[in-house]
Structure prediction request, 1086 residues.
Amino acid sequence: MVDFNDTIVALATPPGRSGIGVIRLSGTASLRALQRLVGCEDFDPRPNVLVLRNLIDPLTGVTLDQAFVCYFKAPHSFTGEDVVELQCHGSPVLLRAIIDATLALGARMATAGEFSLRAVANGRMKLSEAEAIRDLIDAQTDAAARQATRQMNGAISHALQPLKDQLLGIIVRLESSLEFVEDDLPQLEQQQLLDQVRLIHARFEEMAATFKRGRLLRDGLRVTLVGRPNAGKSSLFNMLLGRSRAIVHEVAGTTRDAITESLGVDGVPILITDTAGLRASVDPVEVIGVDRTRREAADSDLVIVVIDGSQPLADEDQKALLEAAVHSHVVALNKSDLDTFSAARIDDEAAALVKTSAIVSVSAKTGAGLESLRSALLQPFANGTVNSEGLMITNARHHDLLLRAIEAIASSESLLQQNASEELTLVGLHDALRYLGQISGETTSEQLLGEIFSTFCIGK
Amino acid sequence: MVFDEVFDVIVIGGGHAGCEAASAAARLGANTALVTINLDLIGQMSCNPAIGGIGKGHLVREIDALGGIMGRVIDRTGVQFRLLNRSRGPAVRAPRAQADRTLYRLEMRRTLEATPNLSLRQGVVSNLIVEDNRAVGIELQDTRRIGAKSIVIATGTFLNGRIHTGRRTYSGGRTGEPASIEFAEALKTLGLKVGRLKTGTPPRLDGRTIDWNAFERQPPDEQPVPFSFSTEAITQEQLDCHIGFTNERVHEAVKRNLHESPLYSGQITSIGPRYCPSIEDKVVKFPEKNRHQLFLEPEGYSTNEVYLNGFSTSLPAQLQQELVCLISGFEEAQIIRPGYAIEYDFVDPKELTPFLETNLVRGLFLAGQINGTTGYEEAACQGLIAGINAALSATGRPLFRLDRKEAYIGVLIDDLISNGVDEPYRMFTSRSEYRLLLRHDNADSRLGPRGRELGLVGDLEWERFNRRRTRLAGIRSILDHTRVGPRDSNYEYVRMLIGQDFADSLSLAQLALRPNITPHHIKDLLVKTNHNVELSDLESSLADKLYSGYLHTQENTNRRLNQHDSLKIPAGFTFRGVRSLSHEMIERLERAQPRTFGQARKLPGLTPAALSNLLMHLAAGQQPTA
Prediction:
């Protein structure tokens, strides 16, 4: 029997673009979660009836949103389980906050297609119907997964990988000492291992803190402006902000540091960063700036490639496009006020090559195209799939996994402290590695053995 | 087809896999023949004269619990028993024993000769006779033809075996024994996917020429722990092993002569086990180590021969002699038999079903080194399963398999058929995600009933198993219900043990889980409360309690991460009907026949989308109308 013992939550609508965002919960804890969210434990909603309610953060008591809520009682629901739908305002940040609240109430982020799976298992949907939806998802999932992975990998894997490696190293040490008891291994440095585990634990806690709900409300979407010097990045930056902040000079290579400012678009806070031009430079200050550009771009949720539309596409422009191609990006074809401007600077071929989704003609000088550019910033997050996770929601899943990994490591830490036998300590460490594996790749038993045998000379 | 003799089951090869297979098949009622090149070498240990160790010891206890013979044979012929990891938790403890090589062989042969339905035949198999895609018999070099309903191939390192010492290479299955060449070719012609692997062995020394004072003694356990659940006690004389080290002079000399080593000179290209590196490997891969450990293992009671464990090599024989003499304590030592490397054919185990039957030919089972494993224990457990299934197949009964969750045997076979091998496969406890569940001391509770169901566990053993089960249940109950409170006579003792006062009474079960409380303490308390228990029984009961919390957590983690792992895949499920499964994936699924979604999930190459669709199909299948 396919058994569903937990409650899942997911965004049922594309975030950002529409006025409404629908969050759906399915599972035995749905009703209770709804009651906590509306701040009334006795809330007894009539099934299939939309009611207007304030949604409250159960941890802080802060009102998150006013929404239409609807309860579908099992088995008369989409999945055949108890289902709750929350029709909220479409701000991605708000939706993220509400989803986080449901996670805190015991729900788990659904994986792609999980709702249909439950619907099929409970006989609410035919296999063929589910497969039709699946085809749609599968095609999109790759793209969404790639996008999500790219976005997240920049920030997360960067920070995660070295910690995973360290964790693996500790596991290797403990496994070696128990599998190869007779071999001439260096004395198990108990204290050293404990220190290492504590350190990893602390680092993971730090990481988890950055995921906290507050971050997006406070910091917003990260957008980076890239492009060759004098394409007009800083002017565009100022235009978006509506005031002059960056130093704008005629001389190429003026912006030496990354400058970050925040602005709001459709209620979504955006952190926009202006960078030094992506240009090979001999000036040491500039070289540092250029490296930072790459890192900024990697950490961004969206990259705006600024191209001077009044001149033919230069090599550096091509390079900028190619480098931006791996990220979610928008092309701002600048200087539309000039006579030599042509919207065809980036021809169809080039656009297809780097899979550019949006090319917006703008003039930083006159302000033309400003609205289109602003809208385009939110476009990549509106990819129109059913159950698409999107960037911020993937974030929530990773956060959840990280928290569980921390729990597992904490238990191993205390066992290590008690000098417990290795196989007990290893349970939590292996669990932690498996949770992390769900974020950035599993470690197989073969890989573990490989590590053991390349680290220690073992074998009699 | 005219046969000179006809049996139900033929087992080819009298090594560790072959012996288990032949014994099991015969005892399951199949008329069995064990065919081997040399009857005098049945049960011969090719390399290290020892059985067991961590992971391996677990396998032997499982073999015994299921009704196999390896455990009994080593119990009767072991010369140094040691329980490894005594200071660690019960799940990672494992028995190990050195054997008298000759006595082991003789005892194995004696056991087989005392088995009804089992006939021994000496001969070199040259061909397999296959009709209608079914194995029906074998042909021997001397033209005899023997017919059978099922056949087990357990040929070890003999298929196209080539021995390397220095630059010399010659054909051989083991030193002093011929390789099996015609048969190797026959298997290739049959269409089986064949590869090459290698392994090595160290030199043996004349014990009279060793300065024993230069080495550290490694004595046997005071209370030897037997492998077999039916062994009351180990009564034979126990011997010491000794520990020594190489030194930088030896390492230098090895490095200077690497070009003489077949592995480094490129003469051998096949892969050897990382887990059993040659001295050349050790010196090259770990140059920072200025000494490597060696173990001097006695070959038996009535011989001077000493096995030099840790010095596996294929350098030229004369050079081996020079190197050995550079080791402190071996200045006068003489090599009786030089070490060597051997390359041999193996068959890709991905070609096998979970019952160890080949996909290509029905009624044909493969077991042991031929499947890419290394080690006597790894071979024996496969032999047991193959022999069981050969007999079941011959008599038209459903075949037998073990799950990963039930036994390390299940882990081994599942790993082999799912992942294949890049290098010789050896068992480690870390290969199992259920390490806490699969202890050496609970092999009987896990597998005894399965063995009994099959018919391999006899009445005597079954009674013994039941008595133990009852005893353990009794102890668990006593542990739960015996309490010590502030007014009991044992309060002071317990207070001293846990280092603090306590107001609420504690059960012995609760006490046992506290830090620094050992089974001995609990035994003392049991004695004080008029309960007499065997320490080993107590340890098993306590182990169950110790791990139950962690097992629970692990289950939760599994459920969280892989919620549908235990979802059963019904027999006869058509993988072909699942969308987005590539042809290769369908084949792999059909071959592996995963019984649960968890098993399917672990097959390499299945994409998340494919798994997701499979899950969907399984979910839909639950409904009467989909």
Summary: Residues 127-179 of chain A form the longest helix (53 residues). The longest strand of chain A covers residues 63-72. Chain A touches chain B through 57 residues (CB under 8 Å).
